Amino acid sequence: MTTRILLVGCGKMGGALAQGWLRQGVAAADIVVVEPNPQPDLPQGVLQVGGAEAVSAAFAPDIVLLAVKPQVMDTVAPAYGRYAQAGACFLSVAAGKTVATLNRLLGGNAAIVRSIPNTPAAVAQGITACFAGAGVSEAQRQACDSLLQAVGEVVWVEREELVDSATAVSGSGPAYVFWLTECMAAAGAKLGLPPELAAQLARATVQGAGALMRQSPESPTQLRKNVTSPNGTTQAALDVLMAENGLEPLMTSAVAAADKRSRELAG
Q1: What pTM was computed for the model?
Q2: What digits encode the pLDDT tens for the residues 82-106?
Q3: Which residues have C-beta within 8 Å of that of residue 77, sequence separation ≥ 6?
Q4: Does one domain contain both 87 and 114?
Q5: Dist. CA 95–CA 147, nearest whole Å
């Protein structure tokens, strides 16, 4: 069955999704992109227009994907309310914007799926948490699931507030890992390693550990134990990281701060 998609916003996430759909087999002619700044990387056949008013009246999307920043959603979304009245499902990837807020912006009675993907979507290794609002049919839910699977795993939550919690863990999470990599490299440089070598060691270690964790049937806890010899070097480091004032309480505070900010962005 053909799914016609109107993609509103083609920045990093919107672009990753569009590329994923094309890899998945969606026909270029079934995608219309609304983006004020034309994207040269999209294949020939994907129509790009500069605003809602430029979308042909003959194009009737099944899914309208809102991929604009939450700070501009209030000004962008209302222009697409006509598609809600025509029965399209709206899929939002904007952090914090609730189903109720989006429904108000779209004129009421819209079928809305709220989701939060993360940046590894750019290499089809992302994960997206989703919540289906009232009025979303099973067919629409499955269509959204399929579109999001083009860039990685998809999970669904039964309570909308859990999307904020997922935002704090997986949506923002790649930045935590990147910062960890920076910190490891900086620590290595302080021990005397050339900065470029320290950065190479840290980056490859994080990449390899992530790949191992993804492919191994063992839990992260067991993988950690596998690399930790009693009274060895790893144990000495973990004694610091797992202390009462170590990494766990710091990460708990960081994730809680992200969760709080996601709720503040609800509008």
Answers
A1: 0.90
A2: 999 999 999 999 998 999 999 999 9
A3: 66, 102, 105, 106
A4: yes
A5: 18
